[in-house]
Amino acid sequence: MRLWKWLGLAAVVGMAATGTALAVRKRRWRHYDADELRSELHRRFGEASARAR
């Protein structure tokens, strides 16, 4: 019985790690055009500046 608990836990951890890896990969490979990237960077800079005050 104890072996099945460890196997189940390992399966859950493996699925979570796979889902995280796929989400990171999908996010990393998102393509922006130049105007979209510029506006996103300006937005993030504005948010960071507002938090620093």
Outline the structure in words.
The chain is mostly helical. The chain has one domain. It has 2 helices and no strands.
Secondary structure tally: strands? 0
Which band does the percent of strand residues land in?
Answer: under 5%
Low-confidence stretches: none
Shape type:
elongated
Rounded mean pLDDT is 84
- SSE sequence, one letter per element: HH
Radius of gyration computed on alpha carbons: 20 Å
Helical residue percent band: over 70%
Query: Which structural class matches the secondary elements?
Result: mainly alpha
Tally of helical segments = 2
> For the terminal residues, how far apart are their CA atoms?
57 Å
Count of discrete domains: 1
Summarize the biggest pleated sheet. Answer: none
Short description:
This protein has one domain (2-52).
Architecture blueprint of SSEs:
Layout: H1 2-28, H2 34-52
Record keyword descriptors for this entry:
53 residues, 2 helices, mainly alpha, elongated
